[in-house]
Structure prediction request, 176 residues.
Amino acid sequence: LVSVCLAGCSKIDESAQPTPRPTFSSRVVTSGLEYPWEITWGPDGHLWITERVGQRIVRVNPEDGTRSVAVQVAGVYQAVAQDGVLGMALHPELLGGTGNDFVYVGYTYDADPGPDAFPRNAIRRYTYDSETETLGEPQELITGLSAHNDHLGGRLAYGPDDKLYFTVGDQGSNWL
Prediction:
């Protein structure tokens, strides 16, 4: 019954041309980053990138690949493949003239410096200065979030409800 319906119901248009396949190209915009974790387009037309091991946020001009350090994130603990400077979220009104020129960053820090590390996650807010193209005025928003060296997420995102969300991963094993 199915084959009869297919044979009787479908008509092949012999004159139709196949849809052309899209073409793509790629190029290296920049290199030498120290383990980039988050990459996002900024309202200034630059790529904003967190460097997990480099412990900084850089801005890259996609036209010519030049980059500048927006901020070296102070107090970062980085020892394994899933910690350091992690996620970043740009305020939806960044450079919109509303005074909300904020950039949020999630990072790992050592909550109890000593012989044994006690990693924790934090979220810090910076203010972007468009004159100097740097981030300053750091403000700790949340500290003491769980962290570990196994399956840490660390992404930051603004939701459609204008709230900031931070992922902690599936917490792997041995989380405190």
The radius of gyration is 23 Å. Helices lie at 2-9. The longest helix spans residues 2-9. Strands lie at 36-41, 47-51, 56-60, 67-72, 85-90, 102-110, 119-129, 134-146, 156-158, 164-166.
